[in-house]
Specification:
The protein is mostly helical and 217 residues long. The chain has a domain of 147 residues: Fumarate Reductase Cytochrome B subunit, CATH 1.20.950.20. It is built from nine helices and two strands. A two-stranded antiparallel sheet has the order 1-2.
């Protein structure tokens, strides 16, 4: 029996996502090399210290531009709705895979939405603080106090971003089918209906779902 597939991500969206992911790891590794002497050995991955200092900000800017492309495409789907509050109150059931009484959600669950806005905030902080401390072009226009604050904010935003991406990767692996969707683009109708019923209704025009877990709201 052939299982019906629903398109979740287009080829352009998937390519954009993986380019951002690659640049994130490159920027993170080069940033760690510049962050502490104990990690400076990571600069060998980029041709040594001078090249690491040159490449790191450029990789960050390109990553932000590509990430902005994802934001433009997905920000509407990441607005919170009324069902999200109840979903969060019943997060324990979700973690235990006990979905009775858990409200239907849209294309992204509240955890994914929260992560989306945290990533956007971190990216903005990294971009603007990075420009302030970019010695080759911009730091001469700022005082030493501004540069020090920018360095602190840059490190803090980088730490939060790394932790958030780790959570993102873990959640993608934990929910079977999520990684496959970003690789192949499609998900089964059963997967869509189980994890994102409101989105399933929207893309299939199914107005009369009879999912048993939704009957006890």
């Amino acid at each position: 029996m052939i299982r019906r597939q629903i398109l979740r991500y287009t080829s352009n969206q998937r390519t954009n996502h993986w380019l951002v992911a690659i640049l994130f790891f490159m920027a993170a590794l080069s940033g760690l090399a510049l962050f502490h002497p104990a990690l400076f050995w990571l600069s060998n991955l980029f041709g040594g210290g001078p090249w690491t200092r040159i490449l790191h900000p450029f990789m960050g800017v390109v990553m932000f531009v590509l990430f902005l492309g994802l934001v433009i495409q997905f920000f509407r789907a990441n607005f919170f709705i009324s069902n999200d509050r109840l979903w969060l109150r019943r997060i324990g059931r979700v973690m235990r895979n006990e979905e009775e009484g858990v409200p239907p959600i849209g294309k992204y669950n509240p955890g994914q939405k929260l992560l989306f806005w945290i990533l956007l905030l971190c990216m903005l902080v990294l971009l603007f603080s990075g420009l302030v401390i970019w010695r080759a072009y911009f730091s001469e226009y700022f005082g030493i106090t501004s540069i020090r604050w920018a360095m602190l904010l840059h490190a803090l935003a980088g730490f939060v971003l790394v932790v958030s991406i780790i959570i993102h990767i873990y959640a993608g692996i934990w929910i079977k089918g999520s990684v496959s969707a970003m690789v192949h683009g499609g998900v089964s109708s059963a997967w869509a209906r189980k994890h994102h019923e409101l989105w399933y209704r929207e893309v299939t025009r199914d107005e009369n779902p009879d999912h048993p877990i939704r009957k006890k709201g």
